Amino acid sequence: MFSSLKSKIGQVLLPGDEFSFQTDETISLTGPTKQEKVVCGPGLRRSGDRLLVCKSGVLRHKAPNMFWMDSQQRRYVAVKGEAVIGIITVKSGDVFKVDFGGSEQASLSYLAFEGATKRNRPNVQVGDLVFAQFVVANKDMEPELVCVDSSGRANGMGVFGGGGLLFNVSLGLVRRLLAPHSDVLKDLQQLFPCELVVGMNGRLWVKSSSLQRTLIIANLLQSCDTMTAPQRQQLFKRVAQGAL
Amino acid sequence: MKDTPLSNCERDFLLKAIEEKKRLDGRQTYDYRKMKIRFGTDYGCCFVDLGKTKVMAQVSCELVAPKDSRPNEGIMFFNIELSPMASPAFEQGRQSELSVKLNRQLERCLRNSKCIDTESLCVVSGEKVWQIRVDVHMLNHDGNLMDAASIAAITALCHFRRPDVGIQGEEVTVYNPEERDPIPLSIYHMPISVSFAFFQQGTYLLVDPCEREERVMDGLLMIAMNKHREICSIQSSGGIMLLKEQVMRCSKIASVKVSEITELISKALENDKKARKAGERCGFAESMPQERITALKTEEASVEMTDVTERANDILQNAEAPPQSVPSPVVPVPGVGQVGQGLQNTWGLQEDDEDEEEENDNSGEEKEDRAVQMKEDKSEKPESRGGDVVEISDSEEEEVVILNP
Question: A215 vs chain B: nearest CA distance in angstroms?
Answer without folding.
Answer: 7
